[in-house]
Amino acid sequence: MLAYAGLRPSEALALHWSDVRAQTILVQRALSLGEDADTKTHQHRTVRLLAPLRDDLELWRGSTSGNQLVFPGHDGEPWKLPAYQSWRRRAFRRAFQGAGVDHTTPYALRHSFASLLLQRAAA
């Protein structure tokens, strides 16, 4: 979601299934300390939903409804800061090291989306 849609981690964690449309994702909230908040810039936007991400989201969605979180915590509730920090230290670190990357952050993946769009425009 971060690399293929350019969302900030807090925006991805606040995303509901009703925000995922056929061709776009509506970004209208962020998660701050486990609570819904406005986005960093206080502006809502839509982003293009690339086909690989759309396919993955269709598999991920299963039978969940529109008002449910796309990425709920283990208890079905929004992620709290300690859970996000633990995921970043453990799972995300293993993923970027497995990809042969020395260091990166989840937030930095949003820049990959801009690169993907530029590559598609040049093709």
The CATH topology is hpI Integrase, Chain A
As for the number of domains, it is: 1
Our measurement of the CA-to-CA distance between the termini, rounded to an integer number of angstroms, reads 23 Å
Strand order of the largest sheet: 1-4
The CATH homologous superfamily name equals: Intergrase catalytic core
Mean pLDDT: 89
Which outline best applies?
globular
Q: Report the biggest beta sheet as strand number plus sense, adding barrel if it closes.
A: 2 strands, antiparallel
| Number of helices in the DSSP assignment | 5
Reading the helices and strands in chain order gives: HHEEEEHHH
Question: Uncertain runs with pLDDT below 50, 5 residues or more?
Answer: none
Number of strands: 4
**CATH architecture classification:** Orthogonal Bundle
Structural class, by secondary structure, is: alpha+beta
- What is the CATH level 1 assignment? Mainly Alpha
Question: Rg to the nearest angstrom?
Answer: 14 Å
Q: Share of helix among residues? A: 40-55%
The share of residues in extended strands comes to 5-15%
